[in-house]
Fold this protein.
Amino acid sequence: MKNNKKLTKKIIAGKYKGKTLILPSKTTTRSSKAIVLESFFNTLQFDIVDAVFVEVFSGSGSIGLEALSRGAKKIYFMEKDKDALRVLKQNIALTDPSSCEVISGDSFVTINEVISRLTRNKEDAYIYIDPPFSIREGMEDIYEKMIALIKKLPQERVRMIIIEHMSSLKIPQNIGSYSTLKTKKFGKTSLTYLQSENME
């Protein structure tokens, strides 16, 4: 018998604490572990308040909506998978849709649109990048494309870049005008933080 039970996770803290988010199918997206989320938000803590946040490869939007719950003023979500987009919009509806913008399509292309919006609004943002792991079929060059994407990001629009990635991947010390601040490992998943010299 097929198990139709929906996968879910709860917002951990803040204004929307306890809200249950739906997760898309595991075949299309991979949800960030609670321990990774907790470490990330412990690192940023009060910096996230009134900040702009971009979640690249959003999936369910759990990172961006957690940021919104903890006081971020605006979230840009980027996702191309149709099922994930449907779930993402349902999850946004549980919080504050007026503070959220969804940019659908290939993140490697739509990043230009996000940069344009940040520039037009004179915003600088935290950019959270959680690409599909490169072991997935068709994703073998995902990390090369991600590094090219980071190089495109204008320093004046970026407060910090955070990459959630396979622990086996070594992120270069320098990517364009950004330097690695630190990497934290959580088993098979790691978080690497990058910043430009201008933001230190």
Notes: The chain has one domain: 8-199. The domain at 8-199 is CATH 3.40.50.150 (Rossmann fold). The helical segments are 34-44, 62-69, 82-93, 107-120, 142-152. The longest helix spans residues 107-120.
